[in-house]
Design a protein that fits this description.
binds pyridoxal-5'-phosphate; alpha/beta; globular
């Protein structure tokens, strides 16, 4: 199994190199040269198997022999043992044709754990084999930092430094990060804004000498292995509901297009999928693309579903690569135009091809709140605001009545208690694994908004730096 860059200028790589590289050297994203194929019989044979077994079957072809099957099985089982539900990603029925796929039973109560719990362990495995270490640095506004920290905690060959703007995250968000006391986890409360945190991360990567000495790396959303891990639950959900002998559609609350691109991958591997409904909040660049064929940037507005408040869906480039006939130069041209003019377009034929698989839908704030209220009233089930965007999108999709619709639940309602309480009058409780969060010991370091201070802090603690010295 080899991987090619969507911009066609970076070297073709195997799995291990793609895992550690993240972004391709030409600025593109890595995709498999060809998709592994599963026959209807092979998919049928997945029925009734544990999550980790389906995970091994679905992901093994992507490794191209880089990790032996038994070793990989151990890594996968270890990653998903951190989830506090025996099914890992259970299905819950809302009405005769709609199911919610709960992806939030991992350590930080959001779907990013599904990919990141595996990614951290894969990093460690490959680094150990190579005798290398890396230093992960990242910035968070509060929402995604904890998933990266939980992915890297206690890993032998990884140190992680996450900067958050001091006093500007919610208390739950801060505590989910700072109560991880592992020696290789370093929380920095920066005297500055989220943008300051991001600027400092960029500056550290741009300082080539520093970057090389520290072995800087990232676990960002464009890493191929994250997509690979997310393909698995499309298979587990579909076979649980009767695939390949039953029609299934998926509705995915979308930001960076990573999760829904994984669904596209599952379909490319042979899983029958009727439709992929892309749910957007008021930041509706994707819904506008699927309506018009033009991707055009607009300012980000804050919403009740903050993990989808983004202007550029970076993983969309992977779909664009296919729409443009896997022509890297054409992708590069579109991306250059997007950077220069804030928009690019595909042809009518290319849009029509996309619409055979995808449908876009936008849900505003009122629609999000109304959906949380309605589902609570009809099913006694609490939706988080991201999942509510998915449920509302599913309701409006024009699908045959015999198609089962699976909505991906990307966050636990207790992660967004204020919106849920406002819509339903019910305040969702933290699950048992986090019920003592408010009394846990915290560890964090406050630093001024100065590159020199942050670099000195990292250099004094990163094990990669100590070994280089
Ligand atoms: C990251 C995230 C999303 C968006 O997922 P993408 O893969 O970026 O489309 C949706 N909901 C929640 C809760 C998230 O954390």
């Amino acid at each position: 199994m080899k991987y090619v860059s969507t911009r066609g200028q970076a070297p073709v790589l195997g799995f291990e190199d793609v895992l550690l590289a993240g972004l391709a050297r030409d600025g593109g994203l890595y995709v498999p040269q060809t998709w592994p194929q599963f026959s209807a019989d092979e998919i049928r044979a997945m029925r009734g198997l544990p999550y980790s077994e389906i995970a091994v079957r679905v992901m093994l072809p992507f490794l191209g022999g880089a990790i032996a099957e038994d070793e990989f099985r151990t890594i996968v089982e270890d990653a998903y043992a951190t989830f506090d539900h025996a099914a890992v990603t259970p299905l819950v029925q809302l009405d005769q044709r709609t199911w919610v796929l709960e992806l939030f039973h991992g350590p930080t109560l959001a779907f990013k754990d599904v990919a990141l719990q595996l990614l951290g362990r894969l990093f460690d495995h490959v680094l150990a084999k190579r005798g290398e270490r890396v230093t992960i640095v990242g910035a968070t506004s509060g929402d995604t930092g904890s998933a990266a920290i939980e992915a890297c905690r206690d890993r032998q060959n990884v140190d992680i430094f996450i900067m958050h703007p001091k006093g500007r995250t919610s208390e739950v968000q801060r505590r989910q990060m700072t109560s991880v006391l592992s020696d290789n986890v370093h929380n920095i409360a920066l005297h500055g804004t989220f943008d300051d945190c991001q600027d400092l991360v960029k500056a550290m990567f741009n300082d080539v000498a520093f970057r090389d000495r520290m072995g800087l790396s990232a676990v960002n959303s464009i890493n191929w292995a994250r997509i690979m891990a997310q393909i698995v639950y499309y298979f587990t959900a579909a076979v649980a509901l009767g695939a390949p002998d039953r029609k299934i559609a998926f509705t995915v609350p979308t930001g960076n297009f990573g999760n829904v691109y994984a669904a596209y991958g599952a379909r490319a591997m042979g899983l029958p999928v009727e439709k992929l409904i892309v749910g957007s909040n008021s930041n509706d660049i994707l819904a506008r693309f699927f309506a018009s064929g033009t991707m055009s940037a607009a300012p980000v507005v804050p919403t009740l579903s903050p993990s989808m408040d983004i202007q550029i869906s970076s993983n969309f480039e992977r779909l664009l690569f296919d729409l443009l006939g896997r022509d890297g130069a054409a992708v590069q041209e579109s991306m250059d135009r997007f950077r220069a003019e804030g928009k690019f377009a595909v042809t009518d034929a290319q849009l029509a091809e996309a619409l055979t698989v995808f449908a876009g839908h936008r849900v505003d704030e009122a629609g999000t709140m109304a959906t949380i209220e309605q589902v609570w009233g009809e099913c006694g089930y609490l939706l988080d605001p991201h999942t509510a965007v998915g449920v509302a999108s599913a309701e409006t999709a024009a699908l045959d009545p015999d198609v089962a619709v699976v909505v991906l639940a990307t966050a636990h309602p207790a992660k967004f208690p204020d919106a849920v309480e406002k819509a339903t009058g019910r305040r969702p409780e933290l699950p048992p694994r986090l019920s003592d969060l408010y009394v846990r010991e915290e560890r964090l370091s406050e630093l001024p908004n100065e590159l020199g201070a942050v670099q000195a802090f990292v250099a004094a603690r990163a094990r990669a730096a100590k070994e280089a010295a």
